[in-house]
Design brief:
single chain, alpha/beta, 2 domains, eight-stranded mixed β-sheet, two-stranded antiparallel sheet
Length: 258
């Protein structure tokens, strides 16, 4: 009970100021950094890379971290979606607002991507075409896109986080637009937080998975997969009802239009 009461205050403090736990980890690394700096300066002699005070760049906590992250919602989600396109031999794809340095980067080697976002994007990368636009008013004709994705986006629409207008029903408009532009026989890959339905203003919403089915009622669900709160694995062909029990899982939906 006390932990649940503290959580909102902790989130607000971190958003406005800094993460105290990260600060403590950095303090732990400070003596080791100073020791390493002393040892390097003592051993440098004729090195072409002298440790000058004007150029020091303290990185204090990497030594305490893992080598990398091969788990988590975004990691697994991006791999899942990229593999889906690769396995289905998709060579042209439209994406709305997903991670450029995740999913989009994964598919560019084998797929031309037209990417839409409300914010600007500067890129000279081959296979990537940018179109500025809003998910609530997509710059495409109706039923014109055969391969479409929108990963961890719809939960943000209408909350102002990314500069979009405040609109409590923004997610509904986004769902209507994605449904409108999807071609008959086309595929929409959609991911969003699922579990016990809540709003965390202005970060995101968590949807009951049945809410997602309802707002995409013009489309047919052909596959539902799920990543649990821990983000350790994908549960394929998951049960929608089971997903409602979680706090912040990730629903991986595949829709089509008959």
């Amino acid at each position: 009970m006390i932990k649940n009461l503290i959580k909102p205050f902790y989130r607000i403090f971190v958003s406005l100021f800094f993460d105290p736990f990260e600060f403590i980890k950095k303090l732990r690394g400070l003596p080791l950094y100073l020791s390493d700096l002393f040892l390097y300066k003592k051993a440098q002699n004729n090195t072409v890379f002298p440790a000058k005070f004007s150029n020091i760049y303290p990185i204090l906590n990497d030594r305490f971290e893992l080598a990398g992250t091969a788990s988590g919602i975004y990691f697994l989600q991006d791999l899942w979606a990229a593999k889906y396109l690769y396995d289905n031999n998709i060579r042209y794809h439209v994406d709305v607002g997903s991670r450029i340095d995740g999913f989009i980067a994964h598919i560019l080697p084998f797929c031309q991507v037209e990417y839409v976002d409300i914010r600007s994007l500067q890129s000279k990368i081959n296979n990537l075409k940018f179109r500025k636009g809003s998910i609530t008013d997509l710059p495409f004709n109706s039923e014109s896109i055969k391969s479409l994705s929108c990963l961890h986006v719809i939960e943000h629409i209408g909350l102002g986080r990314y500069g979009d207008p405040i609109d409590p029903s923004g997610y509904l408009k986004g769902a209507k637009e994605l449904s409108r532009v999807l071609a008959h026989g086309g595929l929409l890959l959609l991911s969003t937080p699922v579990g016990k339905e809540k709003l965390y203003f202005n970060a995101h919403r968590v949807f009951d998975p049945y809410t997602i089915i309802k707002i995409f009622d013009e489309l047919k669900l052909i596959e539902f997969n799920f990543i649990d709160d821990k983000g350790e694995k994908i549960i394929h062909n998951a049960d929608l009802k089971d997903a409602t029990k979680y706090t912040y899982g990730c629903g991986l939906f595949v829709f089509t239009k008959d």
